[in-house]
Fold this sequence. Notes:
Shape: globular
Pfam families: ApeP-like (PF22817)
CATH class: Alpha Beta
InterPro entries: ApeP-like_dehydratase, HotDog_dom_sf
Distance between the termini: 25 Å
Low-confidence stretches: none
Radius of gyration: 15 Å
Number of helices: 1
Structural class: mainly beta
Largest sheet: 7 strands, antiparallel
Protein name: ABC transporter permease
Number of domains: 1
Amino acid sequence: MKQARYDINIKNFLPHREPMLMATVTPYLDEDSVVTHFEIRGDCIFLTSSGLLSETGLIENAAQASTAIVGQSYFDDEDLEGAGNSVVGYISAIKKAEIHELPKINELLVTKARLVSRYDTGSMSICTISCSTFRNDDLIVDCSFNFLIHEVE
C-alpha cells in the first residue's frame, strides 16, 4: 500500500503542459483520493469572452485531478520528480457532468476526486472516478468519469 503524498508537484506526473495544465498544486494524494488546486489566470485558454472558466475547462480540471489517483501507481514511490513519466490517460466516458456555476479569473478551484472502481490488466488500468470541484466552499462541479490509463514506451 502506497503512503499518502503531500504537496506534490502534479505537473511532474501529468503529460499536460501550459496552456493545457489545469491542476497545479496537489496538497494530498493517496491510493483512493486526491485534492488539487488550480487558480484561474487571465491567460487560461478555457476562458469565455466574459472571463469565466468554460465548461470544457472545468471538465479538463476534474479529469486531470482524477487521473492522478490511478496514474501514481505507475511511478516508483521514490520518484518524487516524475522522472519515470511514461503513462497516458484517456477519458473513455463522461458518466455524469453537473456544472452548477462557472468560476471567474483569479478564483481558486479545489477539486476532490475519489476512486470508485479499478481493473488492471498488465500495463493498463480501466477505472471509474467521481469528482467534485469547489469554489470557496461552494460545489460548482459534480462529475464521474471512466478512464483508460496505460504505460507508453
